[in-house]
UniProtKB/TrEMBL annotation:
Its main location: cytoplasm. Catalyzes the reversible isomerization of glucose-6-phosphate to fructose-6-phosphate. Pathway: Carbohydrate degradation; glycolysis; D-glyceraldehyde 3-phosphate and glycerone phosphate from D-glucose: step 2/4; Carbohydrate biosynthesis; gluconeogenesis. It comes from Alistipes putredinis DSM 17216. It comes from the Bacteria. The lineage of its organism: Bacteria, Pseudomonadati, Bacteroidota, Bacteroidia, Bacteroidales. This is Glucose-6-phosphate isomerase. One of its GO terms (molecular function) is carbohydrate derivative binding.
Length: 443
């Protein structure tokens, strides 16, 4: 069985030859570097280019951290956070902490918000656990992770002393620039490099994602093998009908032109919730610019059928749905018989829960399509490292193609600066006095 398949299962899209060649042309631009944002195409060949030496360095460091600490605090935001979290949550047991012998180490995340309560609770929760930290920031100056790191570094230094802290803190950052790099060099932290030509949201297959995932005991070689498989399946020269990323990109752009402005990524596996968060950043930051772009949203079914289901079925007809379907679960749970049958569920006796879940998926897809919500379907055989690697590269490639089809640069994010400018001005950061004065007049 293929690791991933894409099918516009219930969508009224006839792809013309012109649209097929536009998608293939966009794919070619990603390979020949002649499109917008071509300084940031390092991710295109990354899975197959990662050398044994780098992989071993990551694995060795990960093993060292695992030996040192029960809990690894992973600090980062946006592209320096969501990929690792997506894979970690997908592959971890959500009830790990309730087990008599929880799998170790546990990854906990910080630096992705400015919540005082979150950080206070995080630090309190690890009070009696041995800890280490992986701090990830390409620029090395992003406010949220920098603040979290300042607090976590204080905690580690206070507990273990500065010398031991240097063994317990690893930085993933730019090769030569930024405050984090300067600090890491001064303190003697081990460092891993985020390549210059890989932007944050395309960086999960660099040490940004690979180091924390390996530290959590995840098989990063399988993750990369899956990504390599998709790299080959979407290579320049692969015919349109055989290239799932080009097909997905073409279909979503056709739907956008038909007025479907919102794409909902749906999954029936709660473990994939953070994958959807990662996907939202990937597509939202890559495409939402110049007054254009499909708005990426997400739902987890069947839970959200009892909340967002009403809107999807009958609200504004500007939605389309992309379902990430998982063919087989890891476990087997069968419905038993009940002599009283008070809940009326005996008709399900002997069925596996996954069969019911898949039937729900089919019923929902038919109902939503009937209600005017085109349905696309991506299937993976199971939730494992290999399938996730395939899915990650599939979405990255589709996003690059889709951004070019839309006519934007999918590798910049000029819009994210606006809030930072205001926040710094309001907080009184030196150099922002004029901006602060302008804002005060508005308040
Ligand atoms: O995709 C992006 O570029 C952003 O989401 C960044 O990854 C995010 O802002 C974090 O930046 P940095 O790694 O420089 O701290």
């Amino acid at each position: 069985m293929k690791t991933l398949s894409f099918d516009p299962i219930r969508a009224d899209v006839a792809i013309t030859e012109k649209e097929k060649s536009a998608a293939l042309h966009a794919n070619a631009l990603l390979h020949n570097g002649q499109g917008a944002g071509n300084d940031f195409l390092g991710w295109v060949g990354l899975p197959s280019a990662l050398g044994e030496e780098e992989l071993q360095a990551i694995e060795t460091e990960a093993a060292r951290l695992r030996d040192l600490a029960e809990v690894i605090l992973c600090i980062g935001i946006g592209g320096s956070y969501l990929g690792a979290r997506a894979v970690y949550e997908a592959l971890s047991d959500p009830f790990n902490l309730l087990h008599e012998h929880p799998a170790k180490p546990i990854l906990l995340f910080a630096g992705q918000n400015l919540s005082e309560d979150y950080l206070a609770r995080l630090l309190a929760a690890v009070e009696n656990r041995s800890i280490a930290a992986i701090v990830i920031s390409k620029s090395g100056t992003t406010t949220e992770p920098a603040i979290a790191f300042r607090l976590i570094r204080d905690e580690i230094e206070h507990r273990y002393g500065r010398k031991e802290a240097a063994r317990r803190i690893v930085a993933v950052t730019d090769r030569s620039r930024g405050a984090l790099k300067t600090l890491a060099d001064r303190e003697g932290y081990r460092t891993f490099v985020i390549p210059d030509d890989v932007g944050g949201r395309y960086s999960v297959l660099t040490p940004v994602g690979l180091l924390p995932l390996a530290a959590a005991g995840i098989d990063i070689r399988s993750l990369l093998a899956g990504a390599c498989e998709m790299e080959r399946a979407t290579a320049d020269g692969v015919p349109f009908d055989e290239n799932p990323a080009a097909r997905y990109a073409a279909v979503r752009n056709i739907l956008y032109q038909q007025g479907f402005m919102i794409e909902i990524l749906a999954s029936y596996e709660p473990q994939l919730q953070y994958l959807a968060e990662w996907w939202k950043q990937l597509f939202g930051e890559s495409e939402g610019k110049q007054g254009r772009g499909i708005f990426p949203a997400s739902v987890t079914f069947t839970a959200d059928l009892h909340s967002m289901g009403q809107y999807i079925q009958e609200g504004e007809r500007t939605l389309f749905e992309t379902v990430v379907s998982v063919a087989a679960p890891e476990h087997r749970v069968k419905i038993g018989s009940d002599p009283d049958n008070l809940d009326g569920l005996n008709f399900l006796t002997g069925k596996r829960l996954s069969e019911i879940n898949h039937t729900a998926e089919l019923g929902v897809s038919l109902a939503h399509a009937d209600g005017g919500v085109p349905n696309l379907r991506i299937e993976i055989p199971r939730i494992d490292a290999r399938s996730l690697g395939t899915l990650i590269y599939f979405f990255e490639k589709a996003c690059g193609i889709s951004g070019y089809l839309l006519g934007v640069n999918p590798f910049d994010q000029p819009g994210v600066e606006a809030y930072k400018k205001n926040m710094f001005a309001l907080l009184g950061k030196p150099g922002y006095e004029e901006e602060a004065e302008k804002l005060r007049r508005k308040l």
